[in-house]
Amino acid sequence: MKSNTWTIIKKEFARFFGDRQLLFTTVIMPGLLIYIIYSLMGNGIQKMVTEGAGEVVTMRVENMPTSLAPMFSTMDSSLVVVEQPVTDADIAMLEDKEINAVLVRFPERFEEALAGVQVADSGMLPNVEIYYNSTNNAASRVYMTVSTVLGNIGRTFTVNVPQDEGQRFDQATDESIGAMIWSKILPMLIIMMLFSGVMAIAPSAIAGEKERGTIATLLVTPMKRNELALGKIVSLSAIALLSGISSFVGIALSLPKMVGMGDSVDLGFHYTTSDYVALLLVILASVLIMASAVSLLSALAKDVKNAGTMVVPFMLVVMLAGLLPMFQNGASDSLVVYLIPFYNSIEVMTAVFSHELAWTPVIVTLVSDVVYTGIAVWGLTKMFNSEKIMFAR
């Protein structure tokens, strides 16, 4: 009995360790992917925490106290302190993100308040007003530093206490805050919904044909192999797109309730026709290149189960790319980024949802994705011409 058990053990070990693909996906890949994902997420979090540290921010100060001037001038090497009046026009530009600044308005006779002298007939403490825009990471860092420093000086004055009804010091609007939130969440949701649609049908599109033996019938028909490859990719893309749209509509309708918001709250969905056109084009390109990549993996696989295993690492890479916008402030300005498949689509979506759409990155993304799809069609055609790949067991 023991010899029979040992025979089975050796048989299973031989099957497992003899299959290099199974060995890699089962033993090596989990630890490797966890290391890569956690390392990149750690770097992303660190970048998010320190983002804006080296960006130059102007701090305009009205009625600068003589005793505090040296402290402000040495507070941060990337901070430029300018003594000038703070006007309503400056505050309006802050709201429209036309200036990268923090506006500080000290009350008159503030030096006497620091010394503990009563300077207000009403008995109220003099109030320091600090205006900023919380959607600007660099300006937010300066605001936190200035407010913390002033808060530690003493209790002879207040900071950012509204003097009139409706006065606000954070000039970020509901729309801009909503745009910042959606630019970090929606690209990941959209890319994962599109990929789930591809995952549901693409592995069986070619590997399933190989497993059932029907691929041989297709290959002997009077049809060019590149036409077969293109037909597979386009049809898979169309079906996956329908699945992705259905999922997106469901999430869009349920998202306000999911985050506990009502219809009266401005969620920041104020986008132009150009935004929607760019979003639609990049979604089409994303699905096309996803279907192309999964089709290549499906052609390499021996059966549907094997295809599903091979797609898992690819799925994790796409998930990681979808997480990256959470750790950055807006879309990248480098056009090189838009040559990276999958990540370029996520960057364009981030730009759309953060109201920073520029058509040059969109065009670069679309052209590069079409080129990559053409390469995938060529590669799939070569695979269809290879009996070793098509009839592998």
Features:
64% helix, D-Maltodextrin-Binding Protein, domain 2, mainly alpha, elongated, 393 residues
Number of helix segments?
14
Number of DSSP-assigned strands: 5
Name the helicity range: 55-70%
> Over all CA atoms, what is the radius of gyration?
29 Å
The rounded distance between the terminal residues' Cα atoms is 33 Å
| Number of discrete domains | 3
Largest pleated sheet: 5 strands, mixed
What is the succession of H and E elements? HHEHEHEHEHEHHHHHHHH
Question: Which class do the helix and strand fractions yield?
Answer: mainly alpha
Q: What order do the strands of the largest sheet run in, or round the barrel if closed?
A: 2-1-3-4-5
Report strand %.
5-15%
> Runs with pLDDT <50, length 5+?
258-265
Shape field:
elongated
> Kindly state the mean pLDDT as a whole number?
77
Structure description:
By secondary structure, the chain is mainly alpha-helical. The chain folds into three domains: 25-51; 57-172, D-Maltodextrin-Binding Protein, domain 2, CATH 3.40.190; 175-255 and 266-390, no CATH class. Helix content is 64%, strand content 6%. It contains 14 helices and five strands. It has helices spanning 2-18, 20-50, 69-73, 88-95, 110-114, 137-153, 174-212, 215-220, 225-258, 273-300, 304-323, 343-353, 359-384, 387-390, and strands spanning 57-62, 79-83, 101-105, 127-131, 158-159. A five-stranded mixed beta sheet has the order 2-1-3-4-5, with helices on both faces. Strand 4 (127-131), helix 6 (137-153) and strand 5 form a beta-alpha-beta unit. Helix 2 packs parallel to helix 11 (304-323), helix 7 packs antiparallel against helix 11 (304-323) and helix 9 (225-258) crosses helix 10. The longest helix has 39 residues, at 174-212. Residues 258-265 have low confidence and may be disordered.
